[in-house]
Amino acid sequence: MTPGIDSTNDRNLALFERAKKTIPGGVNSPVRAFKAVGGTPRFVQRAQGAYFWDANGKQHTDYIGSWGPMILGHGHPAVLQAVQKAMQDGFSFGAPTEREVELAEAIIAQMPSIDMIRLVSSGTEAAMSAIRLARGATGRSKFIKFEGCYHGHADALLVKAGSGLATFGNPTSAGVPPEVVAHTLVLEYNNLAQLEAAFALHGPELACLMIEPIAGNMNFVRASLPFMIRCRELCTQHGALLIFDEVMTGFRVALGGAQSVYAQLIPGFKPDMTALGKVIGGGMPLAAFGGSRSVMEQLAPLGPVYQAGTLSGNPVATACGLATLREISKPGFFEALSARTQQLTHGLQEAAQAAGQPFCADSQGGMFGFFLLDALPQNYPAVMQTDSPRFNRFFHGMLQRGHYFAPALYEAGFVSAAHTEHDVAETVAAARTVFSELN
Ligand SMILES: *Cc1c(COP(=O)(O)O)cnc(C)c1O
Q: Is the minimum distance from the CB of 397 to ligand 1 under 6 angstroms?
């Protein structure tokens, strides 16, 4: 709690109590409720650059950035100007606009795997529609996903591993009938043997394999190189589509997304389809999915796979996304962002080391993860073995000092171009104190 603020004048607490009366759990997306770490969520009043101010007027350095979209920081002048101008011209038309074409072209220019793209309004829609299209294009029903990867909340994706590779998944949410996930095969991330076995058993029935190439919904876990190579080979061999869910990593870990990172390591590498979101909307509701011309031409109105949206390609959202992409395409942008992110992860590493605390971290571009462990986990079970009481104490110690990290150990973090060397140094200094207090 902030000095001078107790429960009688804590506006975050008052708002949370009030919200809980009309909104389930007081929030419109579960992770915001602080259920994993306990305590009171911070209600954001306003944000600027690398900071936001909560309902008590307290300033926080923001390492979430709306879970990734705010790669330029909050209220970037060029983005603000583009959005204000677009608003003057109209909020939504339900008819095509030039900016949708510009945004499609801007995305495709950075991702050679995409010939054509369809704009939607959320990552959930993008991933769900990509799977429908893969099924429609291949005429197959089954698909592979990995434990710990999140692809939005479409029914067929809310699933955990079944009891064996011959059995398919079990729903992770009430309201999802078992029949709906009966075609979803859930495998362990980075587990080559399971991958081989699954294709050996089900190869001819698989429409696609969907993967977060750098998983950001189990903190930060990279697909190993041999694993990614085998995903590509097996999909090609069995006629299944390899779908990269880059809703988080696209335009965040590099201008060309995680696929450009893997393409540097694996000559000629590319996925068949890509789901995008977060950064491409710059903080407005905008997402997309794209792929080769032959696959994308299966979509309505050209082909038999239906997909639509009243607000798809929204003119204000496309203006926001385009202005954001324009800024991050400037020379040196990702080099500077990567360096700032590494300043943070290296600084946290030294702070933990000085306090004798186990710690490891990884990052790519402006996305990072850290674990209070000695070595980086390679899959979801290993991530979940992290000592969560210690993580929660670290989280609250940092929050109290005005440094806002993800309120759950299974979430990635984000640095923006607005974070200065000084901002990060202050965060590292606070971490030094917090780590020493964990002893
Ligand atoms: C955030 C996210 C989604 C879901 O996007 P929404 O816009 O929240 O529906 C899907 N996939 C990945 C990898 C994500 O990080």
A: no
pTM recorded for the entire structure: 0.97
Residue 216 domain flag:
yes
Q: How far is the CA of 321 from the centre of ligand 1 (A)?
A: 16
Residue-wise pLDDT for 277-298, tens only, equals 999 999 999 999 999 999 999 9
**Residue 236 belongs to what domain range?**
77-328
Higher pLDDT: 173 or 169? It is 173
Residue 145 CA to ligand 1 centre (angstroms): 14
Domain-ending residue, one of 273, 300, 328? 328
* Same domain? 221 vs 242: yes
Number of domains forming the structure of the chain: 2
Name the burial class of residue 202, with classes exposed (0-12), middle (13-18) and buried (19+) by CB atoms within 10 angstroms of its CB.
buried
**55 and 89 within one domain:** no
Q: Give me the pLDDT at residue 3, please.
A: 61
| Sign of the torsion formed by the C-alpha atoms of 387, 390, 395 and 398 | negative
Regarding whether 87 and 28 lie in a shared domain, the answer is no
Task: Encode pLDDT of 204-233 as tens digits.
Answer: 999 999 999 999 999 999 999 999 999 999
CATH number at residue 322: 3.40.640.10
Q: Is 36 exposed, middle or buried (0-12, 13-18, 19+ CB in 10 A)?
A: middle
Tell me how far apart the alpha carbons of residues 417 and 345 are, in angstroms, rounded to a whole number: 16
What is the reported pLDDT for 319? Answer: 98
